Inverse folding.
């Protein structure tokens, strides 16, 4: 780790790469397609017989696709070279990092964490676009009690796909783009601890997207996103798409989790003690750390499901000695930690940016960490509150009510941290800050409605109704997605080098937030009145509420299009961003735009935390400083005090 | 808590936020008293009446909390917003935390949490007590794609696709499924339990209102999940006995 690594002349860096020079997304699709065809042909010829033939063929074809895709992108080149004892030249590493490859590096197995971050952002936005379109189809169908816009089969397929796509999108929406692009710079690292694993986690998700979308042509996912067995056992081969997607996604999240955790544990800049590590870093680690025990449960549930579906394993089929409750438990052992996998980094991003725009230190940094730790700890002990009404172990309903209600204490503490930060601040109401305020509104509603659902007798009345749907949209979308959009508006200048133009984003903010509240307040009303979830038609009693919800949903849809337009147009020809447009103090705002390949010419030394707003500048220990001054940080707002004052 | 602090510190924002908080709390309490239970409709059992009471009580209890968050947020936007349009010229007050505030916050939220828990456990106890009533009517409920079947084992196995219940007699439902998971939900009675293949789950209620109520499936169960609904008729004991004998059963 010396400054020398950036001094290599360009001609050296463009020489390496070897076979990797020839591999990109196109060869990946080609290899995936060819292997899938081979897999399909061989399995089709050999496995025609039996009850499960078509499921087996689909499963093998999908697995072959994923394997071929990963071979074609070059995911295995590094390990194979190591096994064969071939050394990687420095030039090979530079090629792999995407040096001097322009746009092409985004279509390769590129290890630069900033490239991976942008790739994650594009993947996330693509998933949201597809999932959002499906949401519009659902709401359009529900505009009247019996609209017949979609038939029942299509409707169920659309509901399941919407759910699963949105869950995957929200899981990666903060830790993917910002955890990869921003977080390493924030801690003063030159890259992630395992850059190849970083690219691996991204391309695994990319390989899973065609698998997931193929469900639409294989009978859909008619089980909702939960994929409850034994309904999943009798579902069409779209269910294989679900299972394979989740198995790949679990691998991806395990890889990403190990990578991010190791990076934060080992690669923080000199002087960045735990009490100087920004809260967003904590949020990211908490999220991926929680995913590490959670997703294997989901993976296991799907492996067992595939044994059921392709081999007649009967894990979940009661008539064969299995139990549907086994699936439900495995699923929710993932499913409840997962909502905090989504929420914690989004809230942490808002906690990171709120001090910048309140021009105040984060209120009670330690409380924020305790709260995050408390949520992580409790979230693995609450899963069966999804199963109060299932009939499984009714005696456990009381204990699970206890753990569920306890989680409101650390969650409430996060509200205090943000309110305390806002308190007597100099509030600069930029778009990211507006996201904080929108979260404060939405997450209160999401949290309070969660309290009703935590109560066992009330849950008996509300479980499986639209009330639940509205509740988790208020948390995952109203708080989670709002936080992610705030993070996007905040870090957009660093990630793209351009300012996000305020106009479209502002219109989008109001349309989305107003539309969101209309949609889901309406949904609370019909849920209380007794409308079940996931129904294609409903009683006339619920007509008004559903009509209102659909109108609100269209506002969200239009608003999201404004945001998409704003992001694309600003990215292409927005105003060039200064190094530190917000006057923030964290390290990512000290590196120039566009961020150089190695991030820091000289690794920074941290002498204070990043929240020293309003504190006396005469005390140099209170401010982060670099030694010597970071090259390229020419903007006068980068640091309020002369750098390099530490001696 | 807030008013005490306002007297101590004599800062104007405490008083103003207090009034804002009080106003919002009053509005939210009024909302809590009127809206949630009303949206859930008239209850047809004590169980549902308890649920609606819970909704109201929890809403009222949450009102001051929500009002506190929203009033501080609203006040900050009104009074502490920098209107220069760019980066504020000065920074805010460098408050790094306040252990008294943090401890009070955690204490109050923990107490609220304990209240919720005690309330819920008490409610569960009364529900369980009513389930153990003597001489209940037993109804076997079977879900299958996509119909409900109700069987009365003690009345000569009378079978029906509509649910008939006598007024004011405790009922125990023994619920199972022929195929996938369904969820047996009598909306206005506030009871729900999954119908699982291969297992029998139980729920119980004492209907105390004459009328026709909704039975729905609350777990996605395939193609025609939305149509898997029927009616629960609560009738007088005499009418119930008449219906049983009419359908070949014995009383």
């Amino acid at each position: 780790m010396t400054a020398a690594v950036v001094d290599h002349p360009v001609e050296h860096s463009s020489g390496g790469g070897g076979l990797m020079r020839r591999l990109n997304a196109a060869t990946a699709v080609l290899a995936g397609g060819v292997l899938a065809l081979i897999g399909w042909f061989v399995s089709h010829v050999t496995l025609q017989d039996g009850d499960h033939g078509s499921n087996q063929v689909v499963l093998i074809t999908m697995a072959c696709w994923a394997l071929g895709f990963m071979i074609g992108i070059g995911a295995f080149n590094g390990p194979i070279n190591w096994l064969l004892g071939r050394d990687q030249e420095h030039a090979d590493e530079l090629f792999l990092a995407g040096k001097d490859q322009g746009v092409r590096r985004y279509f390769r197995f590129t290890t630069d964490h900033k490239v991976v971050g942008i790739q994650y952002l594009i993947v996330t936005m693509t998933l949201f676009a597809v999932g959002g379109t499906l949401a519009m189809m659902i709401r359009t169908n529900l505009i009247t009690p019996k609209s017949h816009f979609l038939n029942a089969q299509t409707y169920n397929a659309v509901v399941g796909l919407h759910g699963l796509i949105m869950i995957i999108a929200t899981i990666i929406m903060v830790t993917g783009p910002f955890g990869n692009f921003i977080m390493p710079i924030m801690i003063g690292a030159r890259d992630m601890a395992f850059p190849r694993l970083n690219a691996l986690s991204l391309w695994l998700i990319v390989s899973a997207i065609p698998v997931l979308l193929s469900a639409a042509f294989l009978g859909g996912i008619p089980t909702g996103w939960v994929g409850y067995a034994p309904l999943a056992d009798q579902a069409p081969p779209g269910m294989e798409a679900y299972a394979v997607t989740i198995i790949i996604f679990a691998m991806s999240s395990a890889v990403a989790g190990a990578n991010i955790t190791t990076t934060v544990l080992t690669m923080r800049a000199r002087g960045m003690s735990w009490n100087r590590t920004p809260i967003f870093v904590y949020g990211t680690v908490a999220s991926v750390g929680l995913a590490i025990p959670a997703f294997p449960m989901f993976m296991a549930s799907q492996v067992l499901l595939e044994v059921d579906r392709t081999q007649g394993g009967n894990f979940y089929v009661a008539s064969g000695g299995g139990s549907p409750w086994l699936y439900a438990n495995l699923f929710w052992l993932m499913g409840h930690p997962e909502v905090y996998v989504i929420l914690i980094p989004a809230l942490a991003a808002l906690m990171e940016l709120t001090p910048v725009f309140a021009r105040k230190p984060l209120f009670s940094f330690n409380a924020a960490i305790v709260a995050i730790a408390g949520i992580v700890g409790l979230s693995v002990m609450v899963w069966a509150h999804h199963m109060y009404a299932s009939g499984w172990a009714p005696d456990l309903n009381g204990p699970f009510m206890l753990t569920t209600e306890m989680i409101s204490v650390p969650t409430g503490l996060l509200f205090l941290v943000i309110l305390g930060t806002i308190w007597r601040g100099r509030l600069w109401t930029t778009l990211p800050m507006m996201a904080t305020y929108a979260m404060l509104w939405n997450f209160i509603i999401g949290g309070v409605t969660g309290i009703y659902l935590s109560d066992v007798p009330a849950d008996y009345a509300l479980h499986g109704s639209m009330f639940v749907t509205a509740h988790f949209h208020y948390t995952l979308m109203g708080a989670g997605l709002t936080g992610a959009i705030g993070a996007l508006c905040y870090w957009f200048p660093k990630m793209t080098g351009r300012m996000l133009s305020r106009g479209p984003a502002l219109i989008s903010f109001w349309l989305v937030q107003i539309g969101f509240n209309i949609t889901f307040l309406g949904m609370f009303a019909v849920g209380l009145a007794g409308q079940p979830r996931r129904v294609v038609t409903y009683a006339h009693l619920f007509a008004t509420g559903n009509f209102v919800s659909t109108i609100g949903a269209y506002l969200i849809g239009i608003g999201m299009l404004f945001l998409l337009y704003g992001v694309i147009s600003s990215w292409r020809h927005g105003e060039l961003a200064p190094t530190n447009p917000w006057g923030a103090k964290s390290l990512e705002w000290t590196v120039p735009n566009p961020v150089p390949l190695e991030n820091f010419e000289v690794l920074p030394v941290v002498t204070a935390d990043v929240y020293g707003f309003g504190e006396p500048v005469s005390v140099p220990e209170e401010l982060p400083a670099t030694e010597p001054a970071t090259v390229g940080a020419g903007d006068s707002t980068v640091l309020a005090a002369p750098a390099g004052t530490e001696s | 808590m807030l008013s005490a602090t306002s007297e101590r510190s004599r800062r104007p924002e405490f008083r103003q936020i207090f009034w804002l908080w009080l106003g919002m709390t009053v509005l939210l309490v009024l909302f809590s008293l009127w809206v949630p239970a009303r949206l859930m409709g008239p209850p047809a059992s004590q169980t549902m009446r308890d649920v609606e009471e819970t909704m109201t009580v929890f809403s009222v209890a949450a009102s001051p909390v929500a009002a506190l968050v929203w009033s501080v947020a609203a006040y900050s936007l009104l009074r502490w917003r920098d209107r220069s349009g760019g980066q504020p010229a000065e920074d805010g007050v460098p408050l790094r935390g306040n252990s008294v505030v943090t401890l009070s916050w955690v204490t109050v939220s923990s107490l609220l949490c304990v209240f919720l828990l005690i309330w819920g456990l008490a409610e569960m106890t009364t529900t369980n007590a009513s389930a153990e009533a003597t001489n209940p009517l037993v109804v076997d409920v079977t879900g299958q794609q996509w119909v409900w079947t109700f069987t009365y084992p003690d009345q000569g196995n009378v079978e029906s696709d509509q649910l008939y219940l006598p007024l004011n007699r405790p009922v125990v439902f023994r619920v199972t499924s022929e195929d996938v998971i369904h969820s047996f939900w009598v909306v206005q009675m506030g009871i729900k339990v999954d119908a699982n293949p291969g297992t029998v789950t139980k729920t119980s209620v004492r209907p105390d209102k004459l009328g026709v109520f909704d039975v729905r499936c609350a777990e996605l169960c395939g193609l025609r999940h939305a149509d898997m609904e029927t009616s629960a008729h609560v009738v007088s004991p005499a009418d119930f006995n008449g219906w049983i004998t009419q359908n070949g059963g014995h009383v």
Remarks:
- The domain at 111-573 of chain A is CATH 1.20.210.10 (Cytochrome C Oxidase; Chain A).
- The radius of gyration of chain A is 25 Å.
- Chain A has two domains: 111-573, 578-647.
- The longest helix of chain A spans residues 324-358.
